[in-house]
Amino acid sequence: MLYDPFARFETAHLSNGLTVRHQHLPVSWVFARFLVHVGARDDPSEYAGICHLLEHLVGDNVPGLTNEQVRMMFSEWGEDPFLGELGYLGTWYGFRVPVDLLRPAIDIFGSFLAGARIERYVDEQKAIVINELRDENRLRFLRELHATGFRMQFPDHRMGRYVGELGTVESVTAIGQQQLQDFYSRYYVPANMEVVAAGGLELSILLKLLEESSFGMVRPGDRNSVLPPAAPPLPAETFFRTSLSRREWVVTPGQLEMVEFFTRGVLPGNISYEALRLFSNILDEVMFRELREKRRLTYGFLSDLRFRQEFHFLEVEGYVPPAAAQRICGLVDDCIEIAATDQDLFRKFQTGVLSAVQMHDTSVADLVEDAVHRLRIWKRISTLAENLAGYEALTLSDMGAIAGYLVPGRRWSYVIEP
User: Fold this and answer.
1) What is the CATH code of the structural domain delimited by 5-216?
2) Residue 247 — very low, low, confident or very high, per pLDDT cuts 50/70/90?
3) Residue 351 to residue 386: CA distance in whole angstroms
4) Which are the contacts of 55, defined by CB distance < 8 A and separation ≥ 6?
5) Lowest mean pLDDT among 78-92, 167-181, 245-259
6) Is the dihedral of CA 245, 249, 252, 258 positive or negative?
7) Same CATH fold, 239-417 and 5-216?
8) Cα(288)–Cα(387) distance, rounded to whole angstroms?
């Protein structure tokens, strides 16, 4: 029988719209995450990076306490607090504390997540982010390069204005305290938040503690919209090639001798997680076999998936010798075709992933983090049984449908030569 920890979450709602998902476990502590359904996708173009800057600042604006005092307090309780991480679709915070310290922990987090004034350290955190944007030629070049790629892949869509989670020096400089407070007041409201927790207490007790904290206050606002799946547009341009000097590019001496290749395909958001994950796994195996083992061109090429609701991205990146720079695009095309048509590989990886799902083993922390990941992207906690059914239903034709979005005319690629 499949043990399915994700099916064991209980769900409840406070009267102000806060969603609570909890799993009672036989431990003496609680691991909690507070998910706010706002991310880099919600940045206004003139204030790109505001969600990231706000994530830096909320932990600095705990009423009556400094950031250092908050960290020291939680450290005395056993573990540093998690004061924020930003994604494209959400921002999340959290802690792990003994059950008997849950009330003060919730009180502190509620004070800065559910009703704070963003007043302290605004200029200091802006300076940190701006220095990060100005720092290191290689990273700055890559940010600008990927922003160019989004403009090429989405010429008439808001994604074409996406410059990354950090924003730009100009956009961050333009952000003031009032813009931060307005953004906070719009999105950091109970109806746009979820608490995901697991540990040694009943759901009813957790609900009571939340209701009695700032998380229980009534504030106007709604859950951020879910973006419907869309058909990916055709890119205006598909290829970029450049060269960089030692001063601009090199991180390690070996990079002087290698060419970096990157390609990104855009897929509609209604393609299932299971289909994309299986295709990515097969493609990694094919590239290992064809590019490393058979041709000795590289230590390894890897694919990566990025889920965005409307669209999903499948990216491939790796390094090859300069002699292979002209043919690497064609070789990756060949690998994609093999991944979409090799029946034996498909069966091998489908069988393997089905076994992996049935043997799923996770810690309490991993369980909560994975649940937050699922909520952030799909706004629900999918169970292992659903994942299992999704993998079982796949056929080789599903791999072919994915590959159809990865043909050269639909991808955006670059080659960087030293």
Assistant:
1) 3.30.830.10
2) very low
3) 16
4) 84, 85, 86, 91
5) 245-259
6) negative
7) yes
8) 26
CA-CA distance, 170 to 1, in Å (whole number)? 56
H-helix or E-strand spanning residue 317: strand 311-320
- For residue 83, pLDDT beyond 90: yes
Q: What top-level class would CATH report for the domain 239-417?
A: alpha beta
For the chain, give the mean pLDDT: 93
- At 60, list the tokens: 């600095």
pLDDT score, position 244: 59
Cα 274 versus chain centre, distance: 17
What is the SS3 assignment for 227? Answer: coil
323 HSE (CA, 13 A, CB side): 4
**Per-residue DSSP letters for 120-179?**
SSHHHHHHHHHHHHHS-HHHHHHHHHHHHHHHHH-TTSGGGG---TT--HHHHHH--HHH
Q: Domain locations in the chain?
A: 5-216, 239-417
CA distance 65 to 369: 27
